[in-house]
Specification:
A four-stranded antiparallel β-sheet has the order 1-2-3-4. With 203 residues, the protein is mainly beta. The longest helix is centred in the first third of the chain and has 4 residues. Helix content is 4%, strand content 43%.
């Protein structure tokens, strides 16, 4: 609203999940430049997980079944999930933990088969700030679109050290990447090639 208040837009956004969820994680799984939402459901145990694809207009569509990441309804109660590019293919893969309460697994690893969209991964190395750059704010401009991230790691009962991931859609270059480090230092890189992992050291 721009006045320090919030408005509940759950219903009109379509990101509706009325079961007991334990794990929630955001990631641009299809590299189109828009953050998507994955929800891990715990109770009832036969409730499928949800992958809400960001439509880019303030709404979401549940594509878990089409994407094959419902996590097999009834297999066990879900606990949590993390996106991580385990094979360095540039597309975030999905690791799902099952076994909430006194239930037992199994764990599930879903490989992301990708598409033609571009990407950039940023590894932060702090010097004046903490070594992992936790708390850094990133602003990326590519293809006339601006994206923001704050590197806080992930989430729930863990803190994973993974690169900051940006999906770039059809953009062929990154015009600029500006990092505001926890120390207050502001660093800008320009004209960056896509489809690579870069390491940025705090000056």
């Amino acid at each position: 609203m721009g006045d320090g208040t919030f408005t509940d837009v759950t219903t009109q956004s379509g990101a509706i999940n009325v079961t007991d969820a334990l794990g929630v994680t955001w990631e641009d799984y299809d590299n189109d430049g828009k953050l998507d939402l994955y929800i891990v459901n715990a109770y009832p145990s036969n409730q499928a997980n949800r992958l809400f694809r960001n439509n880019g207009n303030g709404t979401f569509t549940d594509v878990a079944a089409a994407a094959g990441v419902q996590a097999k309804p009834g297999i066990r109660r879900g606990s949590d999930a993390s996106f991580a590019d385990y094979d360095n293919g540039g597309f975030p893969d999905l690791f799902v933990c099952n076994g909430a309460s006194n239930e037992v697994g199994p764990y599930l690893l879903y490989h992301n088969n990708g598409n033609s969209n571009g990407w950039l991964k940023v590894v932060l190395r702090g010097t004046e700030s903490n070594q992992c750059g936790i708390g850094a704010k990133l602003r990326l401009v590519a293809g006339n679109k601006t994206q923001y991230r704050e590197y806080t790691g992930q989430h729930y009962m863990s803190q994973n050290y993974i690169p900051v991931h940006f999906g770039l859609g059809p953009a062929t270059r990154v015009a600029s990447l500006t990092i505001t480090w926890p120390s207050g230092t502001v660093q800008t890189l320009t004209n960056i090639n896509i489809n690579q992992t870069i390491t940025v050291v705090e000056p």
